[in-house]
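Course exercise 7: structure representation. Students receive a sequence record and must write out the corresponding structure in token form. The form below is the worked example handed out in class, using Low-density lipoprotein receptor domain class A (139 residues). Read each field label carefully; the graders check that inputs and outputs are placed in the correct fields and that the protein name is recorded exactly as given.

STUDENT ID: A-19
EXERCISE PROTEIN: Low-density lipoprotein receptor domain class A
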Amino acid sequence: MNSVLFLLLVFLTDLCFAEKHISTRCPSTLYLRCQDGLQCIHKRWMCDGRKDCSDHSDEEPQICGKKGRSGTSGASGKFINRQMKCPETWFYCRDASACVDPALVCDKHNDCKDGSDEESFCFELKVNMHRIAQHNIVY
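STUDENT ANSWER:
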């Protein structure tokens, strides 16, 4: 009986150990896996100055650069320093701190240091998008 319990205990210990070392699968392309493979965080949390991964890999200088999110292209490639030429369709922050991918404009998260990507025009934009959708206008 003791040997059966011992074997069961060894098996369960090995199973738990193996489970801890299996890489986590992230739920969508909006998430990135931390370097240790045990955790996923939203892409917008990469290089934001806060250590969200338990291994702190989301804030490593090799990934983020010295200036962080708005000063480099970062791991997600969503931000570009204004000293570089920005893609034509990207949003230009009013304070010239960064260019922001259009997908991140009006998403209720300040990507520009001055918050200019989340101002009153977002409401107007949503109203116009709603009107277009109502009338099935295609450009």
